[in-house]
Automatic annotation (TrEMBL):
Pfam families for this protein: Pyr_redox_2 (PF07992), Pyr_redox_dim (PF02852)
Enzyme Commission no: 1.8.1.4
InterPro entries, per the entry: Class-I_Pyr_Nuc-Dis_Oxidored, FAD/NAD-bd_sf, FAD/NAD-binding_dom, FAD/NAD-linked_Rdtase_dimer_sf, Lipoamide_DH, Pyr_nuc-diS_OxRdtase, Pyr_nucl-diS_OxRdtase_dimer, Pyr_OxRdtase_I_AS
Domain FAD/NAD(P)-binding intervals: 5-333
Residues annotated as catalytic: H450 (proton acceptor)
Organism taxonomic ancestry: Bacteria, Pseudomonadati, Pseudomonadota, Gammaproteobacteria, Chromatiales
GO biological process, one term: 2-oxoglutarate metabolic process
SUPFAM superfamilies given in the database record: FAD/NAD(P)-binding domain, FAD/NAD-linked reductases, dimerisation (C-terminal) domain
Protein name: Dihydrolipoyl dehydrogenase
Source species: Aquisalimonas asiatica
Cofactor requirements of the protein: FAD
Domain Pyridine nucleotide-disulphide oxidoreductase dimerisation span(s) in chain numbering: 352-461
């Protein structure tokens, strides 16, 4: 038997590493087991999010946006650029450096907090023991007082479009193209599909997204979703709904067969990205005699405080109920660490912000109009377009709007939905307001600096009670 720890965390992604740091801050001896190997063959902390998810995709989104601005929109500002060249390899290199800087930063935080990084695959055994299997198959078993399971998730594969690592890839592979495909097919027009489509479309790809559902972003407030859809159409994203892929074959290119309301269709593309969702990494996470309880979809069964059916064993992040969002997992990690240390922990699942990093960005928190209608909750709403704000006009970023939904009787804010410039940053004000149980009148009374994009939030709050200044109510 090897070393004994107060806390062993299985998984070094945003849920696991944050939980580990908080546990160490609270004086608990802590180790993290992680088996992620970066494409350079080196072990790397940060999980999917930092290595092949949130961070590299945002790096590419930003690079592609800069390129698109120089090519297409800076001329409106009187800035003219000639002979603009795109170096995809350099772009990917920059993305990799961003990733390396951040994952290296986590390793430094582990050293500063005296957290042991156990490199290998972690498996929960009976009686809170954790078996670690290294890259060469060597095994070591550790004893813990508490175990936190945070193994994350992985892309869902589909039989109709088997990955070949070259022409047909998942979201991981879409971050490493070495040139711009002339024609790009994407299965799935959800968050990841839209973001990947945006990157390569801006760089020159003709992008077609095949979405099995009949509705665009059904979980997003539909007024905001329709506004975003119109913008994406202008940008040239070809989104086809009710399209069920039946087969994809590679030769010189990829032929995708699918069915929609008009019958059998086919599409020829140079590359195909499969992004139809993610599934929890619970395979080989625990031994049979550990008796850990999963639900019918393979998620670890937990209560509100992320406790599993096993005393002293917790699960957080993408392997438990709730949205698969890095910041949700991080907050669960903090909550669990504080509970283990004898304190109180809490995550308010009603005020978790969501963001889609397209251009314009889409961000929201709380309830949508359609969910309130189906629940029979009385509400009132107000909207304001970015085009009516001075700052958005000055930035040439006039697309989009802010929508605020409040309870019809109490005026408490129930949901805020934004499509437009810097929506990912603007949503934070709404999250704070809702966390403090604010009313739309509270937001309407707060002075917002002029000229800023945040004035659209202010005016939308005024609009809830038909008091907006800069639009006809």
């Amino acid at each position: 038997m090897s070393k004994h720890y107060d806390v062993i965390v299985i998984g070094g992604g945003p849920a696991g590493y944050v939980g580990a740091i908080r546990a160490a801050q609270l004086g608990l001896s802590t180790a993290v087991v992680d088996n992620f190997i970066y494409k350079d063959g080196e072990p790397s902390l940060g999980g999917t999010c930092l290595n092949v998810g949130c961070i590299p995709s945002k790096a590419l989104l930003d690079s592609s946006e800069q390129y698109h601005k120089v090519k297409h929109t800076l001329s409106a500002h009187g800035i003219k650029a000639k002979d603009v060249e795109l170096d995809v390899k350099e772009m990917i290199k920059r993305k990799d450096k961003v990733v390396k800087d951040l994952t290296g930063g986590i390793a430094q935080l582990f050293k500063a907090n005296k957290i042991d990084w156990l490199k290998g695959h972690g498996k929960l055994l009976d009686n809170k023991q954790v078996q670690v299997t290294g890259q060469k198959g060597e095994q070591e078993t550790y004893q813990a007082e508490n175990v936190i399971l945070a193994p994350g998730s992985r892309p869902i594969d589909i039989e109709a479009a088997p990955l070949d690592g070259d022409r047909i890839v998942n979201s991981d592979g879409a971050l490493d193209f070495d040139d711009v495909p002339k024609r790009l097919g994407i299965i799935g027009a959800g968050v990841i599909g839209l973001e990947m489509g945006s990157v390569w479309s801006r760089l020159g790809s003709k992008v077609v997204l095949l979405e099995a559902q009949d509705q665009f972003l059904p979980t997003v407030d539909q007024r905001v979703a329709k506004s975003a859809q119109a913008e994406f159409k202008k940008q040239g994203l070809d989104i086809r709904f009710g399209a069920r892929v039946t087969n994809a074959k590679t030769a010189k290119n990829v032929t995708v067969h699918y069915e929609d309301k008009d019958g059998k269709q086919s599409l020829q593309v140079d590359k195909l990205i499969v992004c139809v969702g993610r599934r929890p990494n619970t395979g080989d996470l625990f031994s049979e005699d550990a008796n850990l309880l999963l639900d019918e979809r393979g998620f670890v069964n937990v209560n509100e405080q992320c406790e599993t059916n096993l005393p002293g064993v917790y699960a957080i992040g993408d392997v438990v109920r709730g949205p698969m969002l890095a910041h949700k997992g991080s907050e669960e990690g903090v909550m669990v660490a504080e509970l283990i240390a004898g304190g109180n922990g809490h995550v308010n699942y009603d005020t978790i912000p969501w963001v889609i990093y397209t251009h314009p960005e889409i961000a929201w928190v709380g309830r949508t109009e359609q969910s309130l209608k189906s629940a029979g909750i009385p509400f009132k709403s107000g909207t304001f377009n970015f085009g009516a704000t001075g700052r958005a006009r000055a930035m040439e970023e006039t697309a989009g709007m802010v929508k605020i939904i409040a309870h019809a009787e109490t005026d408490r804010i129930l949901g805020v939905h934004i499509v437009g410039p810097q929506a990912s940053e603007l949503i934070a004000e709404a999250v704070v307001a809702m966390e403090f149980h604010a009313s739309s009148e509270d937001l309407a009374r707060i002075i917002h600096a002029h000229p800023t994009l945040s004035e659209a939030v202010h005016e939308a709050a005024l609009s809830v009670s038909k008091r907006a200044i800069h639009k006809a109510n």
